[in-house]
Amino acid sequence: MLRERKSASRAGPVALAPAEADIWIFAYGSLLWDPGFRYQACAPATLFGYHRAFCVYSYIYRGTRARPGLVLGLDRGGSCRGRVYRVAGARAAAVLAYLEERERTIYVYERRLCRVRLSGEPVPAYAYIADRSHPQYTGPLTLEAAADIIRRGHGQRGPNRDYLANTVLHLRELGVTDHHLEALLRLVDARPG
Fold this sequence. Notes:
CATH topology: Hypothetical upf0131 protein ytfp
CATH class: Alpha Beta
Number of domains: 1
Strand order of the largest sheet: 3-5-4-6-7
Radius of gyration: 16 Å
């Protein structure tokens, strides 16, 4: 069984998984198309209690401090369809360390062990939840406000619009139509940055 311990620092939860226990990682945004780690299997899954939202300002990867971009986070309420990756127990610690560095450089996400639905069965999976107390948490944004930020955002990993378009494309490949993201992409593309 996977357990977590809260660190005394802002580093957040630290996994205490047995060396041979496989783990699952839930993907809802960039992990859909760029996991960055080896996995044994991946499959569609649904997380309940959280929804995918452009609720985090990006000052590095998809924007700058002068011209922020927006990235996705899991925010409270609803549900989120995405995919899970199964990681072999022997690689679990390395993958969690990699994700800690990638997803938690500024501590805007909290890693939590959540239950997801995989082929109708509950499975424990790690997910990265937006920290509502973090200064880069946007709170609710109108579609127009989000589109304006995304249209102008550009960071180390390229245009913010590409991040949105890649997410929409990979959700479609999973058979998921996220109406909010689809409408957001149409709005971003309706007017050049």
